[in-house]
């Protein structure tokens, strides 16, 4: 484990840099489109859907390309393109320019994050602990990115894109120095086998489908926090700074919880870890639908964060454990389905708010959807255990 971590540290830092850039962009998107560019929530949701759709495509292509071609060249190309996109965004972020820059950002970021996850899966040799470690660094990037919003954003996106340029410049330097070493490590690893010397068992198709569907639905509801909740908080009379502080708190708590998970995570617990995470996420939306003050928002964010910390690394870790040898394909699916949920979430949320029951009704719908997912995951766990016993 220690040797793997020592070998993996450049990948962890790369995850931090890429997610810092990602995390400084997405919380601002709905606010900037709705408040500064004066678009409706539904129109903003459609732009976010196209952005997240490009993220789906980037995630899937990143997984396929990572399995077939040189990781070194693909990663360098993606990082250079992200740097170019940030430079364009620095100068061109009006009503026409910002959506274009955003869609390209989604495509390239999806590919890069999938590449990082795929390489982690290949280095992990079936261990779920490295996924928890990667998510600690990714969420450290979340803390840095969201904390930067309150300092850098005052109606002008140029300071935000300056931070992006800095992150990608450092990432390119890191990649150029260590990418060959990481690529060699992933191509020379040995297949993981059980104690009896047999290849590890495959995940049943029913369980795999349920896990992927749960991932899409969970991110569809989680995306409300990333989009419509930002406007809801302002309608309650609170500032963008409060929204930024909620995400800083989210990132710090994630690091703490996932640090504990890294020490105590076990493969045999993954099915129940995933189930417990979904229960907590559902509870966060139930609470959010009943409170309208700062303390209640932080309490709801606490449940959301604990659920995310337990559930989000658990799904790719479980899929990776039982799909060894096809990491790129399956981790690409994980990122693509996640991005699809993020794409559809803001559109559906904007429609519910505008046409039916408002923000509180939306939060109740999200809680109900997550409770249905809890039931589906429980069925998937039962099927998985039944197949293992056979």
Automatic annotation (TrEMBL):
Pfam families, per database record: MFS_1 (PF07690)
Spans traversing the lipid bilayer: 39-62, 74-92, 98-121, 133-154, 160-179, 206-226, 246-262, 269-288, 294-312, 333-353, 359-384
Membrane topology annotation: Multi-pass membrane protein
Primary location: membrane
Key words, A-Z: Cell membrane, Membrane, Transmembrane, Transmembrane helix, Transport
Keyword Flavoprotein included in the entry's annotation: no
Keyword Cytoplasm in record: no
Subcellular location: Cell membrane
InterPro entries per the UniProt record, alphabetical: MFS, MFS_trans_sf, MFS_Transporters, Tet-R_TetA/multi-R_MdtG-like
PANTHER family in the record: INTEGRAL MEMBRANE TRANSPORT PROTEIN, RESISTANCE PROTEIN MDTM, PUTATIVE-RELATED-RELATED
Protein name: MFS transporter
